[in-house]
Amino acid sequence: FSSFWEPRYTLAIHFDEAPSVYPGTPVRQNGINVGKVSEIMLDQNYGGVVVLIEVRKQFHFRKAVSYTHLT
């Protein structure tokens, strides 16, 4: 359970496509809910979409990790 007031940080992730992803979609890492999708935008420069996620501050992602699916 996460609190509305819990500190979070935002990450931007590029995908070729993001079907069934929408604001509010949970973001999980190894089955643990670490945040949620806050916004989805078309990427005008590179094609595809940019998904902004809000991650609970207690969780950290490594920069070298490749993400292919949010849910």
Structural commentary:
By secondary structure, this protein is mostly beta strands. The chain has strands at residues 8-15, 26-29, 32-42, 49-56. It has a four-stranded antiparallel β-sheet with strand order 1-4-3-2, with no helix packed on it. A hairpin with a 6-residue loop joins strand 3 (32-42) and strand 4. The chain is elongated. It starts with 7 loop residues before the first strand and ends in a 15-residue tail after the last strand. The mean pLDDT is 84.
State the shape: elongated
Helix content: under 10%
With strands numbered from the N-terminus, the spatial order across the biggest sheet is 1-4-3-2
The biggest sheet amounts to:
4 strands, antiparallel
- End-to-end gap: 17 Å
Order of helices and strands: EEEE
Question: What portion of residues belong to β-strands?
Answer: 35-45%
DSSP, total strands: 4
Low-confidence stretches: none
Judged by helices, strands and strand pairing, the structural class is: mainly beta
Radius of gyration: 12 Å
The total count of helices amounts to 0
pLDDT averaged over residues = 84
Name the features.
71 residues; mainly beta; four-stranded antiparallel sheet; 0% helix; 44% strand; elongated
Element layout with pairings:
Blueprint: E1 8-15, E2 26-29, E3 32-42, E4 49-56
Antiparallel strand pairs: 1-4, 2-3, 3-4
Brief characterization of the structure:
The chain has 71 residues and is mostly beta strands.
